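LAB NOTEBOOK - FOLDING QUEUE
OPERATOR: T.R.
BATCH SIZE: 2
PURPOSE: Compare the predicted structure-token outputs for two unrelated chains run back to back under identical settings.
PRIORITY: normal
REVIEWER: second-year student, initials M.K.

ITEM 1
FIELD SEQUENCE / FIELD STRUCTURE:
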Amino acid sequence: MGQQEKVSTSLAGAVSEGISASLAAVDAELDRRYPGDPGTRQPVHTVYVPGNVFDAGTVRSWGDQALAALDEHAPDAASFAAVLGLSDDLAEDVYGRVRAKLEREPIEDLRVDFEDGYGGDDEDRDAARAARLVSEAYANGTAAPYTGIRMKCMEAAVRDRGIRTTDVFLTGLLEHGGLPEGLVLTLPKVTYPEQVTAFVRLLEAFEKAHGLDAGRLGFEIQIETSQAILAADGTAAVARMIGAAEGRATGLHYGTFDYSACLGVSAAYQASDHPAADHAKAIMQVAAAGTGVRVSDGSTNVLPVGSTAHVHEAWRLHYGLTRRALARAYYQGWDMHPGHIPTRYAAVFAFYREGFEAAAKRLSAYANHAGGDVMDEPATAKALSSYLLRGIDCGALDTAEVDALTGMTRAALDRFAARAAATSPPRPSSRLGRTAARGGRPPASDRRRRDLARAAGEERRAEHHPLRRPSAPSRRRNKRSAAVRPSAAASWATTVMPSRSASSMSSKPTRATGRACAARIRTAVTVTRLFPAKSAVTGSGAASIPRTAAPTRSGSVGPGETHSSRTGRPASSIAAR
């Protein structure tokens, strides 16, 4: 052995302790705002069905229709591969897995729609019926792993209706056995963070009324307006929405057509690969990173129906858009028709099958400290493990083959991916009992949301508690500090409320107004620190336009992407891959 080095230090232990103490608040804030991935399975898609159409056979019906489309338009692996451009070594495997998936689990995430897609004349009845059918499906094992509703938004014109439908549906679930673990709620057309907060208050009231654990109910936020991406003051509103959810947000879902129309994109070019869509989703992705909130892509409105040529062109479009999204780390999207499911699963399975061996070998080399032609870091090892776990969850990969190539168990993969525990699709095998009717014990991810919601609520209440008012000496110090920094509030007022002049404000603001202004200043300062660069955009109105077919446009593709075209025109005009 060589000579042992003498280790000397110059700083007392108190220095390290002092630094740690000074960063304690930052440590707590990081842990609260960025808890990391929840460790649960993320579905590869969301299917929405109008509330007046949804019935007990919806899931199986979609699977049967998708299988019938394959039988008619691509009856074997070779023909399906030819349509999508799958390589020979993937053709049989992908086609077989797609058919097996359609028979076993055709829908991973189902949303009963009471918003844009709803066309019934008795929403109370349809919401109550949906609750009963969802409960029965979970009880008999026929439910999609994740199921819930999309209610109307928090805008004034439809707010009361959205609140009532949410209440009717959730109350019905409790009456018919309890809240299933796979329950998902989707809040659409969110424009201001305050609308998210309002929905949180609604869920809090429901939990309190039924004695449920705080934070038991989570929800997704659907981003369909430009104001949700960039607020009037130039900040990223979507980041503030995640905070406004107080730990309850589970996902951010991009609304392709409403968002495009809000920006004035013409119907011919409304698509998930439009530059405006890429910008919005990139902001969503950055805002959600590390928070445990997942991002979902939108959908295409080109339906694979009609002649075989038309179906093939629509399949190519959908496959290309899905592969493009996966390469950009959008692992979930929305499907509008049973004919979309075969290409959804084909794209997902091909994505994981193509990269499986390379990812497994790289992860194994990293875990075993073996050499190789790629030098990976811990963050990349985490991404490799997450990639393999996603492939296993959706059925693209088998646990046994991953174990064989990596030498790791599922638990080991979970540890590398920093997941709390391996989770299988939530699917109760028997009717939920009395405990579940009271809400049951929420799964780990729900308990995490509950804890975050409770902490946020306590922080909010403490902020306005009279005991937190500064003492007289503190008020004097604050007054002196304000005298030497008179521009802070003025700067905020100019930036955040440019339309309000000094003459339009009361000369004698109330105490409540003062507290509200102080809270806004704190928010503005925090957001400014997070998002210092400000810019302005203008929209051209939020009017919806018909989701009709539109001309297509061929374009170049980047590395690892497949050809994609704009939505529209009869699908026969979409360029072949």
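ITEM 2
FIELD SEQUENCE / FIELD STRUCTURE:
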Amino acid sequence: MLTLFAHDGDNAWSGGHSYYYENVTQFSHNAANAGYTPTTVATYLEHHPVPMDDIVHVEDGGWVNADGDFGSPQYINWNWPPVNQAGQFDIPNGWAEDERNWAILTATQNIVETAEQISGPADPEKIVYPLSGANDVERAWHFLLAGYESGYMYYGTSLDMEIKATLACNKAIDSAHPVASSGTDLTSPTIWLPQRLPWNPGGMGGGSLWGYPGGDGQQMDSDFHIWTYAFDHSGLERVELMVREDIDGVNGPSNDNETYAGGADVGSWSSITMNLSIMPMDEPWEMGGVDFTVLPYTIANKYWVELIDYENILLDYYIEAEDVNGNIKRSPIQHVYVGENSGSSSSGFVMDGEQDDAPLVASGDYLTLRVTRDENLLYVSVPGVGQTNNVDHFIVITDGSGVDRVAPWAKAGLFHDWDYFLAAENDNYWCGWFDTYETVQSGAAFASAHGTVLEGVLDLELLYGGSVPEELYIAAASYSTEDGGDLKDQAPVGNGDGNVSIDEFYLLTDISGVDTPVQFSKISLHPNPFNPEVIIKLTLPEASEIELSVYDTAGRLVRTLNHYASTPGTSLLHWDGTDNNGASCPSGVYLFKANGNLVTRGTLVK
């Protein structure tokens, strides 16, 4: 077996002098001591020549230490899966800037290949040096190959990177299209290498896609999507996914898994017509930082399929496309082992970025905090960062001990000491759990997802053992996304000083018991601002005793209102703007607590 190490050639840990002479100076000696033979590719092939009729299998690997990629065999920094407007993975309807580049390149490549098929072979030297008498096809290749520059995708929206692949492809089409349209098209369609999400269905997922989990990573569902971009200059007749099941569960030495013909170790191919999603020329929705000042002449469309109900089986698959002239193209054969369908749910809670059934317990200006519990599982959620603009979202849980400390992620202000927090980042929609040391957490005690909402589950028994607190304090907050960003909103509402102290948390009681305490499904003030009277509207899931307390921003109790709701539903409380002594309250912001929990605030204006 040959293991090939590939290294970034221009960074601090590069594949040249600084790598071997500064970072891994004993690499070769340690490899030899472990029984390996350090060598180079050229030397290896010289000692072990490969027969011309041999079949070579290349196993997927990961690029370690590539910024934002961290071991992904998909090279995610250049190929982020499609997402919807909320940042949630959405293969059928989603969009990603880098994938759009691949769609443009795929279409242009087919036009240039068709032009070369009609005009005859291109001269590589004239492709490199087109000023030396290159023809239209050679000039087209010259521009197209420049469009595959990795920096255009790696640097994303920096400067004008988002349009450079388009510029290169448009220049290539200017030269190639007249030639491609001048003769008979015998060129097969062009298919982008098939993509897959999750990469490890039914197994564990890690890396930037799932929030850099350590240890075993996060559990993936066994259902998965396969998608590609396909294009033909004359038009496509069909695009199909071909799938077959392995017989013995091993991609063995027979090479049956590596050939289209197969053999005794694999089953027969099944064909699945792939779904079509039209790719827009422009951005599908308004995106900050994206500025397509130049649009492509043409673009390939997306074709996708979701494979479901496979478990504990090795699959081979490839994509086959046929154009209107009967020319057929097959992608390389791909392999995936599908594990057990354990899904990504925790008990009755489903981690899919959509809101589970949980009562609203506190609201801010735009943040809404929902909390519920199923035995030992605590569920929390707030809106996803796609619902706001330029802010990171946090859900913080503490047993109430400790003192105020610097806010998480080095944000401005103070935050009461936490046991765990769940966070989502505005710039890349990343989310994950952290402990008190701000170390990323994963494993059976933690689950999370990010989409329309940022949601998470904590297994309290696993985290606290036999010492589950009787009370937990929970707060949501949003901060400007940059380092040192200031506090923008919080739920429950705070006193406006830029800090989140323990009296600004929602209090969940009787954690160690079975009964979930009464929660408020909804609370609102009408009108707000008010002068001097206000109606407090509470929506309750069950009959409840309510004590509503009004405080000023200095934390002083102003007025207490008691109410008993004999039935579930809406209850109305009235405050006339006076304190417990009957005196009129001055203009200002007032905080409303229901049964001890800070739930909303209002402004008295005179």
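REVIEWER COMMENT (ITEM 2): The first strand starts at residue 190 and ends at 191.
FOLLOW-UP: none requested
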